[in-house]
Amino acid sequence: MEPVEKINARADALGALGLDQSAGSDEIRDAWRHIAFHAHPDHTNGDCTVFARAKEAYDFLRREGLTTKGKASGQPRRPKLRKRVIELDTADIEACRVLLNTALAHNPDEGSLQPETQSTADADHIPEAVGFYGRNLTFFVSTSVQEGANRVALPTSFLASARRLETEVLSFQSRETGGGEVVVPETITARKFPGAKSVRIKFEADQQMRDEFWLAV
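-> structure tokens emitted (217 positions)
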């Protein structure tokens, strides 16, 4: 089963028990006990439709390990990290565009992913959206990586304590043209992206890729 299919199956199973996707193992077990008693054929004149559907859902969640009582049950739970994707606003995109049009070739020691030689309009990239997972950032770029030198302009201050729009041009080399992912080195991330633990850039990123990002566990 593909990751997105598994997420949808879990959501359907939880829905069959009357729960949302934030439900914990205790809530799942309680919901099943409630339905198992009230919807049992003995209490519904032999109608087992609701009971059978709930049992199938509970069995699926049990196989997925979502019904197991954890060792820390009854103790305060650590908040679960949630993924989210936001569209960049017009001001952010325009700032990236302006910077690409005016930026000089970067010194590799001042922000390039790899030494830059030359660039063309096709090799300049601007993200349309950014995904958040804790302090991990993923930028979604719809254009394709070009063979040779590429540049991408990125807003860098999303996680800063007092956000003020900052944009940086990063350069990298590619051996081929097409989609793919670039991981920004930790040294550049620490310098250029305040508060970020990691930064990734996904190219040829469409709406489906964004959906899969926030649906994946």
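DSSP finds six helices and eight strands in the chain.
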